[in-house]
């Protein structure tokens, strides 16, 4: 199934699920669980060795939050935006809980690449979260683009399709957003 077909299928399934179709919910869960697990595995490979949060636990928690959210998903953009926010919130909450037992401040080192988010320690994900919140106050759309790119795993071309602009436009916005994040950290 191509990316375009997959996105159209997700949008269709979201609509059917809203209307109470349990089969659509089942199909949607299969599509989304697979995508979320791929993203979670990528995130967890970049975490410190011995990290206590496993990819499957991250996926399960994110999926449960998505399915239980009292949200009328408007389209796939809305769904992916929420998925990215939920995955970021889970990672931040986990980092905060882990840091609750620690003392002292560490250096923040975050690498934002075109395809991945590399977080060196729990302070880094919290620092990233704080910087993302500051970016959202300054430019909500650029913060959403980074959420879609790093936490929902979409490419600039896919994000551009969702927003109705070119992938190059998204790449430029992403570049400016990353510069803001690096400056904020």
TrEMBL record:
Keyword Transcription tagged: yes
Give the UniProt keywords, A-Z.
Sigma factor, Transcription, Transcription regulation
Q: Where is the RNA polymerase sigma-70 ECF-like HTH domain?
A: 8-184
Pfam families in alphabetical order: Sigma70_ECF
* NCBIfam families assigned: Sig-70_X6 (TIGR02999), sigma70-ECF (TIGR02937)
User: What protein name applies here?
Assistant: Sigma-70 family RNA polymerase sigma factor
Give the species.
Arsukibacterium indicum
């Amino acid at each position: 199934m191509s990316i375009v077909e997959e996105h159209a299928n997700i949008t269709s399934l979201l609509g059917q699920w809203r209307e109470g179709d349990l089969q659509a919910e089942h199909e949607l869960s299969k599509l989304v669980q697979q995508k979320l697990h791929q993203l979670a595995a990528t995130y967890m490979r970049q975490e410190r060795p011995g990290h206590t949060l496993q990819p499957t636990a991250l996926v399960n928690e994110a999926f449960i939050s998505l399915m239980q959210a009292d949200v009328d998903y408007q389209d796939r953009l809305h769904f992916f935006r929420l998925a990215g926010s939920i995955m970021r919130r889970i990672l931040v909450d986990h980092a905060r809980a882990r840091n609750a037992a620690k003392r002292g401040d560490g250096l923040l080192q975050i690498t934002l690449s075109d395809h991945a988010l590399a977080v060196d320690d729990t302070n880094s994900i919290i620092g990233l979260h704080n910087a993302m919140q500051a970016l959202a106050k300054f430019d909500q759309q650029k913060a959403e683009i980074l959420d879609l790119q790093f936490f929902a795993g979409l490419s600039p071309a896919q994000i551009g399709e969702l927003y109705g602009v070119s992938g190059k436009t998204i790449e430029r916005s992403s570049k400016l957003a990353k510069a803001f994040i690096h400056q904020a950290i």
